[in-house]
Amino acid sequence: DQQVKQNSPSLSVQEGRISILNCDYTNSMFDYFLWYKKYPAEGPTFLISISSIKDKNEDGRFTVFLNKSAKHLSLHIVPSQPGDSAVYFCAAIRGDAGGTSYGKLTFGQGTILTVHP
Amino acid sequence: ETGVTQTPRHLVMGMTNKKSLKCEQHLGHNAMYWYKQSAKKPLELMFVYNFKEQTENNSVPSRFSPECPNSSHLFLHLHTLQPEDSALYLCASSQEWGLTQPQHFGDGTRLSIL
Lengths: 117, 114
Fold this sequence. Notes:
The complex is a heterodimer of chains A (about 120) and B (about 110).
Chain A: E1 4-5, E2 10-14, E3 19-25, E4 32-38, E5 45-51, E6 56-59, E7 62-67, E8 72-77, E9 86-93, E10 105-107, E11 111-116
Parallel strand pairs in A: 2-11
Antiparallel strand pairs in A: 1-3, 3-8, 4-5, 4-9, 6-7, 7-8, 9-10, 9-11
Chain B: E1 4-7, E2 10-13, E3 18-25, E4 31-37, E5 44-50, E6 53-57, E7 64-70, E8 73-79, E9 87-94, E10 104-105, E11 109-113
Parallel strand pairs in B: 2-11
Antiparallel strand pairs in B: 1-3, 3-8, 4-5, 4-9, 5-6, 7-8, 9-10, 9-11
């Protein structure tokens, strides 16, 4: 049972345009969400995060939106650059004490983003 | 970012071999993690160490044996592995287990079992 899902295996975008990566989750106890970027032959690199008490967090070209009622989050990259081409992982964590998922990062399958010049 | 270093980067071994994966972090963190990433699957948490104590074992077979001698080093000892254990093994660290903070990953060891 996959608790974090990225339903789009890949996304192709033109340079300068907006990239929107989507993520859905099923566990309502998740209260902290992260996006990681991964280049080939490298480990995932932390990109941006959002707490469940917020609905938006922005860092430069990257903005994460959280819709708790829909259990959905998205990562917007504007403007997209060829260097953004990578695999993007959505992850969620349950921050409250107790329970077997306490502190665990649960990852989605990843979305391959390709930004064309 | 080179805060988390994993060696070796690639490892090919037979099913009867014994080998170890090494992870070292220079970030002053107190929690360290082993993850497995199989082809077309999400990253799966294997083990968590917090202040050198194992706090999580995510139902990992005993042919994988972790060791954490101090907060900066983490090992994964491998013996009598199976072909389905071929995967990318990632080490990560964070300030402390349980805090809602990002984990920082190494570049992984690509393991192939013959």
